[in-house]
Amino acid sequence: MSQPPPPPGNQPGFGPQPPQYGHPHQQPNPYAQPPAQQQGQQQPPPAPGPYGPNPYAQAPTQPLPGYGWQQYPQYPQYPQHPQPPKRGSGKVAAIVAAAIAAVLVVGAGVFLVANGGDDEPSATPSKGGSTRPAGNGPLKARALWDKRAVRPSKAEITAPVAEAWFTGDAVVKTMPDALRSFDIDSGRENWSIPLSGDSCPGPESAANDRLVLQYGTDCDSVIAVDIAQGRKLWAKKLPTPNGRTSHSYSQIALTGDTAAVSWIGGSVAYRISTGAVLWTPKAGSECTDKGYHGGAALVAIVECGGFGGDEYVQGLGEGGAKKWSWQVPNGSEVYSVISTDPVVVGLAAGGATLTDIVYLDGGKMKSRISLGAGGAEATYRIRCEDNRCTNVAVDGTTIYLPTKTHSGSGTSYSQTNEIAALDLVTGKPKWLARPDQEREVKIVGISGGKVVAYQKNTYDKPGRLLRLDPATHTFSLFMELPESAKDLENDFLDSDSDWWLYKDHFFLTSDHISASANLTDRSIAAFG
């Protein structure tokens, strides 16, 4: 399709502008940019994965510096785990198909992404860092406590309750009937705030100990909560443009004092402290906000020109002022945003599967990393859904990704994999590390400048957390879970679950609570 004209200079921001609220999409397709050939520039070509489409098929002709790993033989293909629908992204046909699939299947486990500091252990609640000094020996953890949840109605089938947030010595967890806070050591409930109606996805991170959550019939309302005090700040109904009352497949993101909510057919942003509307889309605009991602910065996914139109990734400031914009290449669409600082975006090229990772700096693409074949044959096992990506960590300009599992060198049933470090600036691999025990390793996040990874229990070994040192490319034992808690651990592993690390406590939380009595109703378990 033809490109619309570039935006005029000195456009106003889009904070409140009575009697109408300004919005970044007031002009027809304001983010379109001239094609690269007209600017005398070319987009960087996709960078291949460090091993090619199949990392274990053949050895490179020349050794790659800094890797130091042997090549492994071909191994049998493992089954691909079904995934629940990815909210707020993809085309209409994909959304309908995913909605049907969500009724039929329960997805596989997912793993929390946590970003910490470079040198000191992080205790930031939204980043899940540990306060344990990096030099201490491994922890022998105990099973501290666990909580069960009220099941949703049979009409809802499953309740999405993936998110958890941390503040002080408390973990805050969504459940089908309420938002609840628990003491991380004793499990004592600090407070609860009822949430009526349907269960709705929440933001990936809190903002200054404040949350804004959707709730109600078809997620038609929002509530702001101070999670440090357990105090409701305000609540209101979401807008219903064109009379549409459903707010399904929504995304909500928090950054600073801004809460941005998007759903199929609409979007709105609020000031978290007061509930004042910051912006809403202009009627008749060619551009719509498909999704938001928050945390350290606020990033919007914008579609212009209707179904199948141009797509943009846009950085927003406080009040919604546009800071930069990047046009997604033709033939690709945004699958999810992996990180907002730095901005790392997952793309789906030519299908509904995550295929590439793009690093953006100031709205300019610096690198594009191919994930190889899609689905079960992807080179890396990153997983993106429900407004977030897991089993991946970004620290500075390095991204850490686990490779796909393959047969180990031990028993015939052993499965193992590695963690790869890639340079976001160049898109090239830096090094690869393999754990000492042949078990699949999954990324939890960053703590004290080191990668924290999880290995589930086996029939003869308890589950454990490892710490990977980027300087030496070696793993060390960080925490060993109790042998006596295998059944508790497996109760979460048998269904959708998330992994979190906070203040030397390891948490397992349910991603969904099912109406079926055949599946677990455990919501959260704490080890430490």
TrEMBL record:
This is Outer membrane protein assembly factor BamB, contains PQQ-like beta-propeller repeat. The keyword Transit peptide does not apply. SUPFAM superfamilies: Quinoprotein alcohol dehydrogenase-like (SSF50998). Residues 1-21, 43-53 have a biased composition (Pro residues). Residues 1-88, 119-139 are annotated as: Disordered. Residues 144-280 form the Pyrrolo-quinoline quinone repeat domain. InterPro entries: PQQ_rpt_dom, Quinoprotein_ADH-like_sf, WD40/YVTN_repeat-like_dom_sf. The keyword Lipoprotein does not apply. The chain crosses the membrane at residues 92-114.
